[in-house]
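Q: What residues go here?
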């Protein structure tokens, strides 16, 4: 393992990269903005995928796999969509030395591909709803890249669905929105700002976009998981129709949803400390590490370590470190990779049928009877969740300030805060605010009807209560 060379307070950006490299999560690819996922990093993504895929299947999603390429002539049919993604698209226009007449877009997202698939698969109202999900990578030409948080290639799940009515589609959009909220809290230990995007921030081609915004320790928001209600726009453009019960044709309503490998970066910037990763229990490649002391001199210690592993491995991911490295080296390594629980076992411990348990979040040594270890770990897992989640939640809540004028807004943003503001501006006003402060609206907390509140920026009637912050 490597070493973390930078303190979070001194240089958060360098600390982040140092942690990722020291914990062997990735190495840089040869093309700018790309990375190689190393075993430790890819295992975290596999665990995210395993947990989330189960939840998607439970709500009716079925897995498929679609092509990488989109014909330019198909991609440009949806004008708002192409305008949103055109600056980021990679285009393949040659095969060898031969020009491609209709150049190929390397997918930045897959609404076009799924629309074509739905056109082929949907005939009658009996085919609806149709909920199709794929796990894949997509490609966007990002200018400012950072491992996991923003790259030219990233992995995700994208769930695309067609429904008979707008009401069914909107209901499902909100259902997945809540599914994401529950997943981020209970699996990832991540509190979020949750709500609808403003007009200027919603997905290109969507009627409504719902988001969750994670709050990093360095005072920036990270968009994490979005749910889009797309209406019938794509259905009409790509001629997706179904025959209803009255034998007439209608356009189905479309939704799309996704969570990406950015989530790995979220875990680091929210939970990480100067010792390394602090991983949620369910997403840790090693959940419990048994560290033996003097095992090479005492076979009984190693035998008991194996017995403990055997008693736990049907429930947890358990490994034994029986090397002759020092205890300091062993525990430092486990802290670096974010192992939630370590069990320390030496000759003096086994004489008393005991071991020492250390949780990653507090590093306190607790003496535990070996026969009680399974029950103790079950209890400690819950304490671990509460401690990490509540710590992150406190950081989020303590960072929110209410402001009602642009000067206080600027001061709050410069002090790495989230501004909760009454807002009644336009998309152009959103752009002006970003130009002045580098902050943008992250999501709407509340829509206002006939409000007497004034917009903090325009001083006109406010229409929404909105969170603003800097973002990755």
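A:
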């Amino acid at each position: 393992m490597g070493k973390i060379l930078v303190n979070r307070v001194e240089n958060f950006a360098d600390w982040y990269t140092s942690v990722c490299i020291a914990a062997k999560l990735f190495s840089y690819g040869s093309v700018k903005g790309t990375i190689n996922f190393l075993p430790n990093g890819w295992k975290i993504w596999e665990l995210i995928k395993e947990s989330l895929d189960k939840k998607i299947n439970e709500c009716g999603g079925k897995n498929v796999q679609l092509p990488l390429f989109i014909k330019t002539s198909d991609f440009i049919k949806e004008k708002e969509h192409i305008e949103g993604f055109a600056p980021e698209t990679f285009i393949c226009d040659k095969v060898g030395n031969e020009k491609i007449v209709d150049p190929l877009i390397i997918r930045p997202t897959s609404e076009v591909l799924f629309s074509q698939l739905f056109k082929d698969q949907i005939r009658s109202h009996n085919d609806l709803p149709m909920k199709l999900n794929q796990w894949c990578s997509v490609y966007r030409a990002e200018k400012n890249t950072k491992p996991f948080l923003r790259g030219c290639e990233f992995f995700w799940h994208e769930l695309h669905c067609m429904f008979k009515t707008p009401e069914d589609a909107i209901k499902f959009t909100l259902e997945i929105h809540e599914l994401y909220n529950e997943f981020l809290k209970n699996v990832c230990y991540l509190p979020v700002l949750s709500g609808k995007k403003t007009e200027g921030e919603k997905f290109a081609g969507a009627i409504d976009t719902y988001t969750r915004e994670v709050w990093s320790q360095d005072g920036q928001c990270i968009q994490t998981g979005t749910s889009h209600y797309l209406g019938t726009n794509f259905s009409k453009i790509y001629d997706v129709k179904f025959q209803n019960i009255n034998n007439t044709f209608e356009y189905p309503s479309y939704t799309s949803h996704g969570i990406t490998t950015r989530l790995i970066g979220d875990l680091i910037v929210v939970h990480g400390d100067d010792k390394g990763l602090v991983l949620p229990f369910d997403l840790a490649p090693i959940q419990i590490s048994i560290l033996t002391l003097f095992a090479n001199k005492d076979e009984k210690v190693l035998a008991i370590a194996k017995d403990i592993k055997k008693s736990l491995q049907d429930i947890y991911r358990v490994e034994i470190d029986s090397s002759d490295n020092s205890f300091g080296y062993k525990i430092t390594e486990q802290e670096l990779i974010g192992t939630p629980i370590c069990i320390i076992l030496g000759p003096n411990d086994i004489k008393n049928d005991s071991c020492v348990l250390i949780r990653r979040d507090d590093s306190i040594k607790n003496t535990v009877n070996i026969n009680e270890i399974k029950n103790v770990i079950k209890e400690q897992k819950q304490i671990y969740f509460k401690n990490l989640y509540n710590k992150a939640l406190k950081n989020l809540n303590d960072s929110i300030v209410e402001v009602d004028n642009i000067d206080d807004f600027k001061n709050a943003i410069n002090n790495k805060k989230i501004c909760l503001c009454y807002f009644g501006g336009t998309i152009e006003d959103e752009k002006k605010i970003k130009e002045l402060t580098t902050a943008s609206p992250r999501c709407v907390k509340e829509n206002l009807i006939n409000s007497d509140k004034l917009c903090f920026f325009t001083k006109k009637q406010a229409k929404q209560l909105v969170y603003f912050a800097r973002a990755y």
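A: Context that may help when evaluating the design: The longest strand covers residues 153-163. Residues 12 and 218 are 7 Å apart (CA to CA).
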